[in-house]
Amino acid sequence: MCERKRAKRSRRRGSVLVEGALAILPLLAVVFAVLDLSIAIFVKNTVQFAVCQGVRYAVTSQTIAGKGQDDSIKTVVQGYTLGLLDSLSPDHVGKNRLSVTYYDPLALTQVAGVGSNSGGNIVVVSASGLSWAWMVPLLRSRAPLQFSVSSADIMEATPIAGAPTR
User: Fold this and answer.
1) What are the phi and psi torsion angles at 14 (to 5°)?
2) Residue 102 burial by CB count (10 A; 0-12/13-18/19+): exposed, middle or buried?
3) Please, where are the H alpha helices in the chain?
4) Dist. CA 15–CA 7, nearest whole Å
5) pLDDT at 138
6) How far apart, in Å, do the first and last CA atoms of the chain sit?
7) pLDDT, position 164
8) Residues 140 and 44 sit within 8 Å (Cβ to Cβ)
9) Cα radius of gyration rounded to whole Å, the chain
10) Contact residues for 126 (Cβ-Cβ < 8 A; gap 6+)
11) Given the DSSP bridges, would you call strands 122-132 and 110-111 parallel, antiparallel or unpaired?
């Protein structure tokens, strides 16, 4: 009688091990998928926040000493990306992915040259061509997530000296 109980227990232990292995794999897949998606959302939101901060910096017509306004804006944006901008760019040079453009608010056409960053014009700061490689491409393709972000606002009135050099 005792031998039968031992045999049942040993079979039960083996089935528990198999059931545990079968249950832990889908559980780990779900955990890693949630973690992967969460990090991708964090990365996109971080770059979006950095671009918004670049626009906030742009509308005040500030510049960093020794740089033009466009370069200053790009430097501010890079500072807010926590280093992610360089790692998200295929060429690993984040400034190449940033663009600063100015538009006439009445005609909604792009304005270039001297005075394009004067008060009343619309400034658009954008980061494009960014890609996030999935950590665990379980049910997704191995192709990276491609995204672009941008933000816009109206330039404030320029100081008495005029608009800073671009």
Assistant:
1) -65, -40
2) buried
3) 2-59, 69-80, 84-88
4) 13
5) 62
6) 92
7) 79
8) no
9) 27
10) 51, 98, 99, 101, 148, 149, 150, 151
11) unpaired
Stated pTM of the model: 0.79
SS (H, E, C) 68-89: CHHHHHHHHHHHHCCCHHHHHC
Assess contact for 112 and 149: CB atoms under 8 A: no
Q: Which of 16, 36, 40 is nearest to 28 (CA)?
A: 36
pLDDT along the chain (166 residues), means of 10: 61 75 87 88 94 94 89 93 82 80 89 82 92 72 83 84 75
Which residues lie below 8 Å from residue 93, measured CB to CB, with a gap of 6+?
Answer: 86
User: What DSSP character marks residue 165?
Assistant: P
pLDDT at 124: 95
